[in-house]
Amino acid sequence: MNNQHHIVTLFEKYIANDCTEHEVAALIDIIRLGEHKDLIEALLYRHFEEHAGELQYQAVAERVFEKLHLQTVPGKTIMPPAKRAYAFMKIAAAAVLIIVSAFMAYTYFLKEKDKIPAGISQDIAPGGNRATLILSDGRQLTLNEIQLGNITEEDGTIIKKSADGQVAYFPGNNTKKHKGFNTIKTPKGGQYQVVLPDGSKVWLNAASSLTYPASFDNMERRVQLAGEGYFEIASKVYNKKRIPFIVETGKQQIEVLGTRFNVNAYDDETGIKTTLIEGKVKVITENETVILKPHQEFNLRSDGINTQQVEVEAAIDWKNGDFIFADEDIKSVMRKIARWYNVEVVYDNTISPENLSGQISRNRNLSEVLRMLELSGNIRFTIDNGVIHIY
Fold first, then answer.
1. Is the distance from CB of 95 to CB of 102 less than 8 angstroms?
2. pTM to 2 decimal places
3. Phi and psi at residue 213, in whole multiples of 5°?
4. Most confident listed range (86-90, 275-279, 320-324)
5. Confidence of residue 37 (pLDDT cuts 50, 70, 90)
6. CA 277 – CA 216 distance, rounded (Å)
7. φ/ψ of residue 85, rounded to 5
8. Is 235 helix (H, G, I), strand (E, B) or coil?
9. Residues 6+ apart with CB under 8 A from 376
């Protein structure tokens, strides 16, 4: 009974934002170990019921119940049974897969976000809208240093820069079209958005590049991607035929007619991932041709291919300004962080493989992101001259 009273006290202090870091860690350990399951279940139901209208809390609740094998049948639900089936159908498509310990660590972190983790004596600001535009004549324009408005004219197309980190192409008075190619490149710690000559929109993640013609013809629209990009393709018709849009990476090409999708083709990742948000795409490799449906992801790896259903929010978290880690390998997590904050990562030789979970804005300083990871995992960090050391 005393133990149960202690758990209730810890939980109530946590909700009231009155827990020490040690007490939060103790509560997380109790949940992870599965102790006093019925009591934990009752406390969680009561807490999540207070946030029944918030989809993120519902998503977390669903993952909690699944992970801890708690009851989710009518009679002991976190919302009226009639609404619950519909809500959880939405959750299945939009849930962030965060286990309860990571959720509690994350929410505690938000309350304590002004504290810097022990061992971090310096901080690093997040990345931002930074990119270089390389024109067909070889000129290189640093977009974050150029004034807003018209930048130049290329192949009969006017190129403009807007205030929201976007470069856009507009038809000009010159009807002469050439086959000159432009390239937009983001550095580590950079991102940028481009509106292509056909009206298609592309968001580029850090350390990425997109090469495309300054004006498309009426046969096809073809671009080359390195790194990661999110695409919203405009539908175009010529002589009653749709003009295909083709995205080339090093080992595959993606053919689309009008759709939204994400491509992760970094050289240091384990494969090339194509995630379809809406519409239909055809992924063509040397040995396979696969047509994806919404919420499917095609992964081309060196040891084979894989197509599976995924939670698309985790695939496009960067485009939406977040980091979302759902039981993700620590090295995958750190590759994303290294690109966005332009840092190197060094691992202690004794570190063991570990999966991390959590969600945080990419607009936070590096120390805040590392603090969230420390609270959700069994690892610690130090930063020294732009190098993250993990132990």
1. no
2. 0.73
3. -75, 150
4. 275-279
5. low
6. 25
7. -60, -45
8. coil
9. 101, 102, 105, 106, 356, 357, 358
